[in-house]
Amino acid sequence: MLQEIIHTWPYLMGLLAFYGLPLPHSLVELTSDGAPPSHPQGLKFELHTLPVDAKAVADGDTVTVYVSTTDPGESSCLPRDVQAAAIERSKARAQKNYQKADELHKQIIDSGYRVIPVNHEEVLARKYRIRLRGIDAPESAMPYGKEAKEELTKVVQGKSLRVFVFDQDRYGRCVGDIYCNGIFAQEVMLKKGLAWHYATYDKRPEFEKWEKEARAKRIGLWAARNPEMPWEWRKQKRENQCS
Q1: Does 177 reside within a domain?
Q2: Is residue 52 one of the residues assigned to a domain?
Q3: Residue 138 domain-assigned?
Q4: Is 139 considered catalytic here?
Q5: Which InterPro entries does UniProt cross-reference here (predicted)?
Q6: Total domains, the chain
Q7: Which of 89, 126, 133, 173 is catalytic?
Q8: CATH number for the domain harbouring residue 127
Q9: Residue 157 lies in a domain
Q10: Average model confidence (pLDDT) across the chain
Q11: Within a 13 Å sphere around the CA of 138, how many CA atoms are in the beta-carbon half?
Q12: pTM, full prediction
């Protein structure tokens, strides 16, 4: 029986890969309930996003999201010039003056907003770049960088997210936790071995536990004997550019 399994194993793996089904080593059990804490310490604000496009995922720990300006938190601070440009753009499109409409949309985008089609309607929305709090995924040029981006895309694509924002980094990104459809994004990335626990900035014990579980199973980037830390990789790259 064991010999039969060994003989057919490559064939089975090929079938799973061909049909885009998860491989056995990539299956993980999510132990958290995927629900955010009711009053997380240090929370600055919360976002409820429009459905996320796959192209909005930059890598395994960064995603661009949009929040409708009909949201109470956004409507109260919507700049008048952006609102006026959106109204004028709608009129220009109705008159088939697409050049003017495009110029107005560029003005809207330059202000940090965008008009997005949702359910056959156009929605004016504010742009936010989110950096997942407490994890650091491999950069795109690093081993498992592509896999990390693909996994985060699977988690968020087409879904409306609930984002808890705690800080802003030096690049202007909101640092936060992402929840969607009963899934905690950071848990998925850590348990699948596609991100490091960024322990320097985040001391949550469950993050340390999830990373250790992935290390023990040699999942994802932990399949390598000595995977390079993303922050060390970035540091080396900066040093090479300056030399």
Answers
A1: yes
A2: yes
A3: yes
A4: yes
A5: SNase_OB-fold_sf, Staphylococal_nuclease_OB-fold, Thermonucl_AS, tRNAsynth_Ia_anticodon-bd
A6: 1
A7: 173
A8: 2.40.50.90
A9: yes
A10: 88
A11: 20
A12: 0.83
If you search the block for the tokens 């087409």, which residue do you land on? 158
- Respond yes or no: is residue 93 known to be catalytic: no
Q: At what angle do helices 98-110 and 80-94 cross, to 10 degrees?
A: 160
Catalytic residue among 89, 133, 139, 151: 139
Known catalytic residue at 147: no
Range of 125's domain?
Answer: 41-237
C-alpha to C-alpha distance for 147 and 7, rounded to whole angstroms: 28
**CA 163 and chain centroid, separation:** 10
Contact between 66 and 126 under an 8 Å Cβ cutoff? The reply is yes
DSSP assignment of 23-83: PGGG-----S-SPPPSS-TT--EEEEPPPBPGGGEEETTEEEEEEETTSHHHHTT--HHHH
pLDDT in tens, the chain (243 residues): 434 543 454 454 455 444 544 444 456 666 665 667 777 889 999 999 999 999 999 999 999 999 999 999 999 999 999 999 999 999 999 999 999 999 999 999 999 999 999 988 999 999 999 999 999 999 989 999 999 999 999 999 999 999 999 999 999 999 999 999 999 999 999 999 999 999 988 999 999 999 999 999 999 999 988 898 899 988 888 877 776
> Which residue is catalytic, options 126, 131, 151, 211?
131
Cα–Cα distance measured from residue 147 to residue 143, given in angstroms and rounded to the nearest whole number: 8
